[in-house]
């Protein structure tokens, strides 16, 4: 599961040529090499099938067509048998995914005379919850409500309603996709019996998409089986992308009420003068599979079933393997404690000691992390680190609204408040009013190993456990040594004309204009995805670092070259005029066209029409994109505002400065600058007009990285506009003093600090090579994390001097070598 290139993949396959596959019994685990082998074996087998047989479009008499049809019918039976479902009792309908299976059932019920009522369990996936839109009445049931209706002598909870539909559908998951909680298969029969006892036409829909991935689903007894069972084969086998709907034949008549019919499902249709059609009657699946079947996907199931069985054994083997792993992870998590005895993980999955009638929990763990003082760890911050450490986990709401709300204790009003408060990148505050808004979910499958589990526990221990002896990074001690004000100067000034692309170093001796939005020509352009309109970022496209714009005032161009290996059919550079001649841009799309997005914020940028320019960037990055411009002075969506603000660790009264750390919660009064920052305009930078870093801090960071055995990083990774150096070496004493600056003078100009800069793993991209590594983010996480945020560098803005008619006030500039003076607070 590494993101290694193809050479690595081929090497592995070479090494695996004689690999004897260990069986899953007796705690012998598959490793990642095994996963690769699985994928390779499956693809090879499928490729052989495809290249030795000719499969035609079904429904014709040709040999190739007949071959497809008979293979598909064989596979249908084989899949039913995989779930121990007798083909005379059940039929399998192939659908695109589990959701399509659910919609097919919902369609039939909507069409039934008098409509239907819908009961669904709280743990349902969003795709099941959506069925309520089609129902006359619907009700969300928790465990107790289901038990009540099972035990109250067969009462449909909707029974007392005035207007009742003629049929009721009850839906629940076999396993929650949120936390792995399992629900008894026997509910299907018992609920149906309850319904029948009260004279209802009562049906059950089981969502087995999550459950079937790691457990045997046994439909051996058709009497207690669900009427409808939906599945996703890609969750089971990884490939093909296909879903299934298994229908208990006794419930098949429901589908007579489906109104829509698609090609392939009817025997005869009359159109012009009369509207009449005859649905196919030979088999249920024929009447429900609209249009051409996904022939090759279905045929691939044959290979998937073979290879999965051969490499991973039976589903029972997979189930005991994954149960062992999840138990191990759970025990590891529960054992994790901070030095002060507080738990590190708040668990939303439960693994009780297994009893005989216990169906256990699926190999899925949902949890949140807490600091030793009880604060929730931000999911966005956690994800940054997990990505860097190459864990493939998921965070957030997980398409399980009821499960999340009950796990996190979120009331409907809170969910709506959080929704309207929105989440934007940059200020991704996913802990709202002291409650997390989502969870972290770890899922294990047949290919997971004990070593994966141990690595993950170690990871949580290393980064989220506060040991008792470890104090938080001390800021105030360092401040006791005051700097000599005259010994700071500007070492480098950089602008990044195209957002996320390489920087342009301001030559020595060139005064550079500072504007309210930032340094002139900084982040005025961006690359936008042709399909989504989103501004591209180095996070997804590290090679953007190798795209180097030069501002050439002599010819009036932005000259853009590419530093990577030369590409065929792509010029070495393109020129874009600095002047914004309207002819260069595509006509404005005035509302009904595509808008661009930067950090989730909708903006209106001017997109260049030149194919040469878009091709240049598209070829380099391998993504369809175009260059766009966002000039200063725009209105409406043509302008943006700064989001930077002082971080909590920076807010401290001056009397407390050098003594104690301030542990006030974030609810403390917002800094005065917040209201101002609403009004502070920026171009396409993420958060603020100007970003500065202090080289003493970088040196301190590099010493820490070296202690951990890592390689020092260069200042460029932080993509600052202004790099400040001290002319006399000071060791660590001056490091991070910028946290407490409030105003700076650079040359003749004044600047106001707007707060520390929140970092993500983009700082791990080497700006010379576009290669990614773990540093400096890992060490920053260890040494510069405050309230869960990883901070480095400082946001700031220019403070113009009003009413002063000097040259410097009219045209403010700074230059490399300018003296930097920290104003006393
Ligand atoms: C994944 C999943 C779904 C949705 O499956 P699709 O194949 O994406 O339609 C529904 N329910 C559960 C429990 C799932 O895990």
TrEMBL record:
N6-(pyridoxal phosphate)lysine PTM sites in chain numbering: 235
SUPFAM superfamilies with a match to the protein in the record: MOSC N-terminal domain-like, PK beta-barrel domain-like, PLP-dependent transferases
Region (Disordered): 637-680
Annotated keywords: Molybdenum cofactor biosynthesis, Pyridoxal phosphate, Transferase
Superkingdom assignment: Eukaryota
Record field: catalytic activity: Mo-molybdopterin + L-cysteine + AH2 = thio-Mo-molybdopterin + L-alanine + A + H2O
Cofactor(s) needed: pyridoxal 5'-phosphate
Active site residues of this protein: 399
Pfam families linked to this entry: Aminotran_5 (PF00266), MOSC (PF03473), MOSC_N (PF03476)
Annotated InterPro entries: Aminotrans_V_dom, MoCF_Sase_C, MoCo_sulfurase, MOCOS_middle, PyrdxlP-dep_Trfase, PyrdxlP-dep_Trfase_major, Pyrv_Knase-like_insert_dom_sf
GO biological process, one term: Mo-molybdopterin cofactor biosynthetic process
Record Gene3D superfamilies: Type I PLP-dependent aspartate aminotransferase-like (Major domain) (3.40.640.10)
Documented EC number(s): 2.8.1.9
Feature: compositional bias, Basic residues: 638-648
Domain (MOSC) ranges: 650-823
Protein name: Molybdenum cofactor sulfurase
Source species: Anthostomella pinea
């Amino acid at each position: 599961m590494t993101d290694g290139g193809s050479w690595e993949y081929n090497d592995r396959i070479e090494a695996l040529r004689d690999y004897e596959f260990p069986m899953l019994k007796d705690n012998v685990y598959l490793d990642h090499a095994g996963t690769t082998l699985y994928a390779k074996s499956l693809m090879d087998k499928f490729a052989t099938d495809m290249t030795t047989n000719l499969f035609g479009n079904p429904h014709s008499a040709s040999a190739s067509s007949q071959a497809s049809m008979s293979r598909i019918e064989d596979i249908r039976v084989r899949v039913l048998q995989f779930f121990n479902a007798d083909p005379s009792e059940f039929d399998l309908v192939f659908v695109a995914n589990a959701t399509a299976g659910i919609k097919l059932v919902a369609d039939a019920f909507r069409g039934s005379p008098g409509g239907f009522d819908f009961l669904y369990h709280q743990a349902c996936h969003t795709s099941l919850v959506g069925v309520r839109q089609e129902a006359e009445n619907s009700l969300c049931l928790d465990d107790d409500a289901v038990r009540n209706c099972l035990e109250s002598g067969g009462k449909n909870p909707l029974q007392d309603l005035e207007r009742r539909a003629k049929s009721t559908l009850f839906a629940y998951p076999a396993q929650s996709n949120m936390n792995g909680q399992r629900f008894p298969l026997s509910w299907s029969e018992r609920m149906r019996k309850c319904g029948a006892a009260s004279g209802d036409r009562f049906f059950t829909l089981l969502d087995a998409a999550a459950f079937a991935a790691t457990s045997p689903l046994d439909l051996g007894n058709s009497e207690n089986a669900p009427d409808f069972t939906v599945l996703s084969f890609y969750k089971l086998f990884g490939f093909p992308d296909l879903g299934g709907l298994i229908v208990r034949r006794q419930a098949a008549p429901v589908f007579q009420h489906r109104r829509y019919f698609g090609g392939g499902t009817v025997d005869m249709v009359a159109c012009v003068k009369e509207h009449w059609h005859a649905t196919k009657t030979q088999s249920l699946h024929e009447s429900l599979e609209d249009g051409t079947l996904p022939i090759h996907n279905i045929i691939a199931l044959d290979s998937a079933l073979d290879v999965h069985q051969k490499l991973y054994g039976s589903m029972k083997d997979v189930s005991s393997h994954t149960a062992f792993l999840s138990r191990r992870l759970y025990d590891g998590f529960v054992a994790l404690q901070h030095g002060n005895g507080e738990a590190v993980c708040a668990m939303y999955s439960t693994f009780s000691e297994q009893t005989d009638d216990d169906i256990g929990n699926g190999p899925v763990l949902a949890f949140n992390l807490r600091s030793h003082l009880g604060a929730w760890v931000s999911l966005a911050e956690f994800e940054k680190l997990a990505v860097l450490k190459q864990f493939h986990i998921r965070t957030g709401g997980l398409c399980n609204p009821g499960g999340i709300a009950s796990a996190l204790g979120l009331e409907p009003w809170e969910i709506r408040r959080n929704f309207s408060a929105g989440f934007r990148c940059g200020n991704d505050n996913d802990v709202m009013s002291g409650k997390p808004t989502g969870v972290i979910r770890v899922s294990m499958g047949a290919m997971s190993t004990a070593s994966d589990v141990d690595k993950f526990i170690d990871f949580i221990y290393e980064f989220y456990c506060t040991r008792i002896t470890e104090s938080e990074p001390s800021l105030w001690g360092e401040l006791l040594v005051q700097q000599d004000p005259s010994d700071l100067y500007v070492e480098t000034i950089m602008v990044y004309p195209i957002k996320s692309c390489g920087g342009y170093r301001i030559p020595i001796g060139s005064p550079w204009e500072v504007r309210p939005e930032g340094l002139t020509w900084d982040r005025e352009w961006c690359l936008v995805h042709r399909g989504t309109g989103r501004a591209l970022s180095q996070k997804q496209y590290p090679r953007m670092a190798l795209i180097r714009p030069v501002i050439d005032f002599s010819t009036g161009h932005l000259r853009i070259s590419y530093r990577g290996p030369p590409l065929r059919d792509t010029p070495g550079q393109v020129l874009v005029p600095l002047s914004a001649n309207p002819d260069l841009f595509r006509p404005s799309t005035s509302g009904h066209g595509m808008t661009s997005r930067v950090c989730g914020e909708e903006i209106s940028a001017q997109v260049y029409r030149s194919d040469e320019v878009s091709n240049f960037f598209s070829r380099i990055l391998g993504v369809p994109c175009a260059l766009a411009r966002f000039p200063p002075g725009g209105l409406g969506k043509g302008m943006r505002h700064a989001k930077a603000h002082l971080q909590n660790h920076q807010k401290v009264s001056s009397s407390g400065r050098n003594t104690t750390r301030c542990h006030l919660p974030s609810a403390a009064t917002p800094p005065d600058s917040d209201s101002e920052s609403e009004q502070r305009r920026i171009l396409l930078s993420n958060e603020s007009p100007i970003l500065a870093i202090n080289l003493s801090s970088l040196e301190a960071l590099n010493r820490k990285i070296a202690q951990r055995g890592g390689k020092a990083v260069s200042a460029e990774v932080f993509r600052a506009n202004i790099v400040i150096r001290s002319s006399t070496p000071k060791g660590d004493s001056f490091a991070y003093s910028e946290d407490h600056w409030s105003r700076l003078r650079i040359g003749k100009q004044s600047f106001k600090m707007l707060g520390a800069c929140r970092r993500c793993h983009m700082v791990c991209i080497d700006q010379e090579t576009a290669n990614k590594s773990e540093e400096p983010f890992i060490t920053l996480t260890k040494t510069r994390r405050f309230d869960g945020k990883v901070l480095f560098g400082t946001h700031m803005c220019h403070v113009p001097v009003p009413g002063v008619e000097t040259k410097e006030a009219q045209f403010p500039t700074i230059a490399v070598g300018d003296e930097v003076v920290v104003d006393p607070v």
